Amino acid sequence: MNGVDVRVLKQKSLRDHIGVVPQAATLFNDTLGTNIAYGKNDATEAEIQAVLDAAQLGNFVESLPGTFLTPFELFRL
User: 62, exposed or middle or buried, with CB in 10 Å at 0-12, 13-18, 19+?
Assistant: First the structure.
């Protein structure tokens, strides 16, 4: 992988550098926070909030009744 023999890599290190883009819409069948933290399952509330702030969505999400725990299905058109 990128010139490195994968047999000498640690599994966690390898997994940290692999991205998956699922084609199924079920990814979004959860909360906003879960969707934001999809690539980092152990993301803290502070990390999720930092992502929202970076995307300039912090104030909007804070105005929702469940903040980032709001079910994503409420945003489907």
Answer: exposed
